[in-house]
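User: Predict the complex with glutamic acid.
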Amino acid sequence: MAEKLPPVRVRFAPSPTGRTHLGSGRTALYNYLLARQTGGQFILRIEDTDQKRYVPEAEQELIESLRWLGLQWDEGPDVGGPYGPYRQSERKEIYLEYAKQLIARDKAYYCFCTPERLARLREQQIQNKQPTMYDGLCRRLTPEDALRRIKQGEPYVIRFKTPKEGLITVRDYLRGEITVENRTIDDYILVKSDGWAVYHLAAMVDDQLMRITHVLRSSEWLSTFPLHAHIIRAFGWQEPVFVHLSVFLKPSGKGKMSKRDSAQLLQDGYSIYIKDLEQLGYLPEAVVNWIALMGWSYDDKTEFFTMQDLIEKFSLDHLNPSPAAINFTKFDHFNGLHIRHLSVEDLARRIKPFLVRAGFEVDDQKLLQITPVIQERLVTLDDAVELAGFFFREHLEYEPTLLIGKDMTAAQSLKALQESYQLLSGLDFNDKEHLEAALRSLAEQMGIKAGQLFGILRIAVTGKSVSPPLIESMIILGKEKVMEWLQTAIKRLATLVQANA
Ligand code: GLU
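Assistant: Here is the predicted structure with glutamic acid placed in the model:
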């Protein structure tokens, strides 16, 4: 077991450009776990400098998704903190300031190349089968020339002056040292012509100013990681520990999830978006448990983890850099486990909105009685609608032929219903054992199996061939309703028998 870390400062730094998916959820979770485990701080930083891609609703969804998962941040745009503002669009001047520092240190330069020139350059490079990179034309301008052109009002960007010789070695916590040749690294734009810094500069500056000790981020940033190290080193700053997390693959394990894949998933009752999972009836506890294990494991056998367990047991040393296929069958399994882990009161409280959404008027006392009889059978909270809806109905609709018992005729089944009615009308509905014994002995007297009789009664009092346990359901429904529904069933089956006579 690796030593516990001193308090870390970690950040989750999403760009609000789209919906919040499992990948972001997992990045946020790992950061959160590390902060809580070490008694450090978890920071939410909104990376919204790309004005073109900014989607206002995305931020709201992001905040709701994180809160739903239970990942509360210690510093962030809404809660403030000593290193704010935590929204990059409010830090424009800071980045400009640092970009100028790089220019002063001869680590960056103004570039006046027009989009047209860059497009031509690119085309030529493609034709010549060369890597498409900036050719360094403006790198050679003297500072005086550059300032003169700025004064004349020429539009410009600021580019990083990547060393063109030698190697750079960076260190990823999971992959070890990675060495690349500097000449393969472009002179990336740090500040665009509209004055906004791009991620490469803004995030490095913020990580430094916000005293971030560990950067846990998506491995899509591995390719520009050497550039990031160059920027940090150009300032003479200490590098945080970089941990690039594994990528998620689609359930088949072949490739990354596309938009089309997620549309198909939703039809199957699944989604990669956190907010959808809430709507589909998954518990945040199950999502957390499931995503925690996509790229991390404790001992290869323990699978049930609460947030508290994860805070105690999480370790960077057990992260796995290999891609992980999203496995929804596992997810259902985890949801079931966590549903069974809840107290009856808690589960009832969470089921209620799903029943209400389905149009049922829900009586809380009754729901508390129902919950324990369906708890074992739920995969999602939404399953309660199908499983327990009948408890809240005034009338049951079902195909009358369903009332015909297995291997029985309609007339025999009708007789079984009539006898049951007789028997039950004289019984007290409080004693489960007694009710069950009486129905079993009725089946015996009639020369049929208890299963055959229960099958008929199940349709009559629940409307379904699969339901929570029959006797418990009858007790919860109450004698009055059961007798009424048996009466209805008798009428329906009698009509059928007559029609067939
Ligand atoms: N804004 C970047 C993104 O959403 C953050 C990457 C990082 O964590 O540094 O991909």
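DSSP finds 20 helices and eleven strands in the chain.
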